[in-house]
Amino acid sequence: MVEIPDTLHSLFSAPIEEQDGTYVVEVPSSEVDHEALSADETYRVAILESPSSTESSMQQESQQSSSQQTVSRAPLEPPVDEGEVRDVTIETIGDQGDGIAKVERGYVVIVSGAQPGDEPTIEIEQVQKNVAFASIIDSDSQAL
């Protein structure tokens, strides 16, 4: 499984844009709205290579998560619960070969046996502060 440090506050995808001779990475407002980040703080940033197909799935996921209001939670609690069933899009593969999906606030869900581009229905089996582990319960939920 992928090891995710407890100090991870947020994980999201964003393009790098040139503005007046400098390069800018725009932080989605949802990261500040959900209190994963604060506008007045300084953060360490890691840049990970991402397949170009991830961008469109991230935009779709962002739109879906904006329109889905879940049960009220404390600001930094995981946005999923054990036993919860949901549809996700697998964006990439982790170091151990497991599929990785992101849900609200960039929260990472690791799905055993999933591949990038898969859109399975999953059940959350284990929830930790910065990552959850899930299994596929229906792999035929491909919505194109």
Rg, Cα atoms, Å: 15 Å
CATH architecture label: Beta Barrel
Total of domains: 1
pLDDT averaged residue by residue: 78
Which outline best applies? globular
The CATH topology is given as OB fold (Dihydrolipoamide Acetyltransferase, E2P)
Q: What is the highest CATH level, the class?
A: Mainly Beta
Structural class: alpha+beta
**SSE ordering:** EEHHEEEEEE
Low-pLDDT ranges:
65-74
- Count of runs of 4 or more consecutive helical residues: 2
What is the strand tally?
A: 8
**Helicity, in percent?**
10-25%
Query: Roughly how many Å apart are the termini?
Result: 29 Å
Strand content: 25-35%
CATH superfamily: Nucleic acid-binding proteins
InterPro entries: NA-bd_OB-fold (IPR012340), TRAM_dom (IPR002792)
Biased composition (Low complexity): 49-69
Region (Disordered): 49-85
Pfam families: TRAM
Topology record:
Elements: E1 16-19, E2 22-25, H1 29-33, H2 53-67, E3 85-87, E4 92-93, E5 99-102, E6 108-111, E7 121-127, E8 131-138
Parallel strand pairs: 6-8
Antiparallel strand pairs: 1-2, 3-7, 4-5, 5-6, 7-8
